[in-house]
Amino acid sequence: xxxxxxxxxxxxxxxxVATSAIFAVHGAVAGTFASWPxxxxxxxxxxxxxxxxxxxxxxxxxxxxIIKIIDAEIRRLFEEIRHQ
Length: 84
Hints:
The chain has three helices and four strands, in the order αββαββα. By secondary structure, it is an alpha+beta fold. It has helices at 10-13, 32-35, 63-82; strands at 23-24, 27-30, 49-52, 56-57. A two-stranded antiparallel sheet has the order 1-4. The chain has a two-stranded antiparallel sheet with strand order 2-3. It has one domain.
């Protein structure tokens, strides 16, 4: 399973960060492409792995910093899923 590219969601890219409390729970999902590749009408039964990270407290950070932190955490979760 290769992670070819990860990009922040459009909503996260456009995030306007206020000084209020911000918490994010991030996660990674692996196996979905093997189960339902492009062009296939319906998915086939296959194992799919989901891993959630610990909540991140992101108050008082700039949007660019939040994106970097969440991106790094999601990449870390993908690596953990890969080695299971």
